Amino acid sequence: MPIHQPLTFREQIYRIYRKIRFLAKRGTLFSNRTRYFFHGEDYVKGTFTTIFLHSTFLFLLAYLLISVITQIATCISAQAFDINTILYYYDINFLITGDKWTPDAVHAIFSTGPIIALLIGILLFLLYMSVITESGILRLLVLWMFAQTIVHFLGNMLMGALFRKGFGYVIMYMFFMDTGKMLISVFALVVMVSLGIFLPRLFLFSGNIYFNYLNGKNRRKFIWAQFIYPFLAGNIILLLLKIPEITLFEVCTNATMLFVLLPVALLGMKSQDLFFDEDPRTMKLSIPLIVITVLALLLYRIIFGFGIRL
Predict the structure, then answer these.
(1) 213-214 and 308-309 as β-strands: parallel, antiparallel, unpaired?
(2) What is the pLDDT of residue 13?
(3) Whole-model pTM?
(4) Positive or negative, the Cα torsion across 21, 23, 28, 31?
(5) Order of all β-strands in the sheet with 92-94
(6) Alpha helices by DSSP H, 95-155
(7) Nearest-5° angle of CA 257, CA 287, CA 144?
């Protein structure tokens, strides 16, 4: 009988490659078991991978829009006090020495961004409520922008009081004692958690972008793919985008969105089933959305890396 020589490591790798190539051409590379692992029971109607990618890129786009708007508003407010500024992707450089700041200037300038975020958030909430039954994917951008305004208002207030930065300068110039600063932080935290408790249905209704219904079979996977994973991935991308100038204050401020998302996720997983309509849904990765977001991130990093003088 012929004696079979054992395959070398290189031959084993080549055999595996040929088998993968054969299965890919035949269309059976991903079995039902593998598809279930990535997409769950409802992978025929839509993949949770696509949901995650769409939501992550919309999260990043929402951050860029709200962040740039609030920062420009802060620079314009500084102009009212004859203070020139240079806007960078990581901070605003106020061209003034520390001893020339006045209480009125501090109160107005460092409260402008959070107040603008609050006003935009109210408008976005009303807009989202008016289109809540629509199935367009841009509705998710409105929802993420609304969540970002909560961070830029309440999150800035919470972490500003703790780090003495951002809105914390306003609190400092009001000469609050440590007890007063702690009460402001607790107030911001309680409001964010309360919003998370009262908004799960608002967030779950974004499921009609992909599904005709949300029930026990797809609701949990949808919440993770639509909100939790994109939040984590988005913040990691923002961290990498702003290295080496990223600050602990900004990281913690961005992380405060968890105080809203965690109650939404926990209560959403236990909510009743939602039926939206019977219109057919299509699950297709939006390449234009990805391209636009990537270009926006690159332009943001490059242009604001040089700084914009206002």
Answers:
(1) unpaired
(2) 56
(3) 0.80
(4) negative
(5) 92-94, 85-87, 308-309
(6) 103-130, 138-150
(7) 20
Per-residue burial over 66-79, b if 16 or more Cβ lie within 10 Å, else e, is: bbebbbbbbbebbe
| Beta-carbon contacts of residue 109 (< 8 Å; ≥ 6 apart) | 74, 77, 78, 81, 83, 94
Rounded distance between C-alpha atoms, residue 42 and residue 60, angstroms:
26
Please say whether the beta carbons of 219 and 206 come within 8 A: no
pLDDT of residue 228: 93
Among residues 305, 302, 150, 301, which one has the least CA distance to residue 240? Answer: 301
How many residues in total does the chain contain?
Answer: 310
Q: How far is CA 11 from CA 21, 23, 29, 52, 197, in A?
A: 15, 18, 21, 37, 57
- Per-residue pLDDT at 273: 77
> Cα-Cα-Cα-Cα dihedral of 302, 73, 110, 264, to 10°?
-80
Mean pLDDT by 10 residues, the chain (310 residues): 50 57 49 40 59 94 95 91 88 82 87 93 93 85 95 92 84 74 88 93 87 80 91 93 89 94 90 76 82 94 87
Give the separation between CA 134 and CA 126, rounded to whole angstroms. Answer: 14
Quote the tokens at residue 205. Answer: 């209704």
CA 131 to chain centre: 20
Compute the distance between CA of residue 93 and CA of residue 206 in angstroms, rounded to an integer.
38
Boundaries of every domain in the chain: 48-309
- What is d(CA 39, CA 67) in angstroms, rounded to the nearest whole number? 33
SS3 state of residue 92: strand
Q: Quickly count: other Cβ atoms within 10 Å of residue 90's Cβ.
A: 17
- Helix spans in 167-276 (H): 167-173, 178-198, 200-204, 219-223, 229-242, 248-255, 258-269
User: Quick check: 279 and 230 in contact, CB under 8 A?
Assistant: no
